[in-house]
Every structure is written in structure tokens, then in C-alpha cells.
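Quick entry between incubations.
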Amino acid sequence: EDKVVQSPLSLVVHEGDTVTLNCSYEVTNFRSLLWYKQEKKAPTFLFMLTSSGIEKKSGRLSSILDKKELFSILNITATQTGDSAIYLCAVEGGVRKTSGSRLTFGEGTQLTVNP
Amino acid sequence: DTEVTQTPKHLVMGMTNKKSLKCEQHMGHRAMYWYKQKAKKPPELMFVYSYEKLSINESVPSRFSPECPNSSLLNLHLHALQPEDSALYLCASSQVLGRRYGYTFGSGTRLTVV
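Done. Structure below.
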């Protein structure tokens, strides 16, 4: 059974702090690892990682994947109150490339950024 | 159009009712998904459609019946639900191959079964 474990489950910081969120996984037929931000409704896509050691960046957010050690981190620098959300890590596995695939989500990290 | 549209946004139904949730996308994605999300829990996969054919059913009870009438539409028919089925139901879509941009989720339907 595919498994995704995120840590910490909850984090409270002050504006301007830097945070690191962790995601470890076990999955058969690994295809990719995805990070999402969820506020009130739908998860919004942040990053998709398929190759080890290549950092993806988007503004103050960055992420990297280690396929040997089976984990990923999401970094947020100079945090703002608008970064407060649940950050979900999901791993994509599948049976066949043409069958669609299943995303297995971790429990999420609840990030609260205080002014 | 880079959105997945779900209707209705909220639904309250009795245990003997029949209702349907609808999902639509016009991004040319040929894989579509239903996820269920309970409060303070991550989304859990229910069904996957690939090229309008059901490819994954995660042992979902038969009171949930998915349908993919064409490449842009995905429905979830509900019948004889239980109060524990109350949750946020999320639809998502993706390319089947080369999913460079991941999955796009709709805003969900908040379902309450009374």
C-alpha cells in the first residue's frame, strides 16, 4: 500500500521566518511527487517533481526531491500571513501509463504565519 | 480555460434521495478523478477515468456511481447515502501522459447527508 508521511503536522511561525516542510513516501511504480496548498477549498498546485536533485522554484517557494532516500522538502522563505494554509504532499503511482494514476496524499502540514 | 468546474457547490440530501454531482473541464485532459475529503483529512481517491473508461475504482460502495459521458464531463451519481458520506467531493483532471503540470482540482461540492 502506498504511503506518504508529512512532518511536522502543524507549524506556527512569525512573518519573515523561513520554514521547511518534509514529505517521505513509499509507493509502487513511482511517477512523481506533487505539492499542493489548500486553504478553504480545492488544493492548488505548487510543484511537480520527477527527478532527484533538481530544485524547483516559484517566488519564495522551492522544493527538491531525493528519490534515493524517498523524500522531498518544501521551503518557504520570508513567510507572509497569506502563506497560512495546509500544505499537502502527494505521490503519484500507477499501473500503466495510459490508465491514469492514483495520487496518495499525506496528512498535510498546517502552517500558521502570525503577523 | 484552465479550470475544473464543479456543481453544485453545496448539497444537502436525505438518505433516500438520488442526486448527482457534476464536473466539467475544457483543458483537453483525458484523465478525470473523483476524490473524497473528510474534515481535517487529506483527499482520498475514489475513481479514475482514462479516455472516458473507468480505470481505477478504489473499492467504493455501489451507492456511489461514476459516469463519464464524454471527455469533458464527469458525473458522480449518489443514491441511498449515509450520514458518514458527508464530505467535500473533489473532481480533478490531468493529462494522461506527460503530466508536467500535475492535476487541476475543482473547488469541490460540500455534501451533507441528513
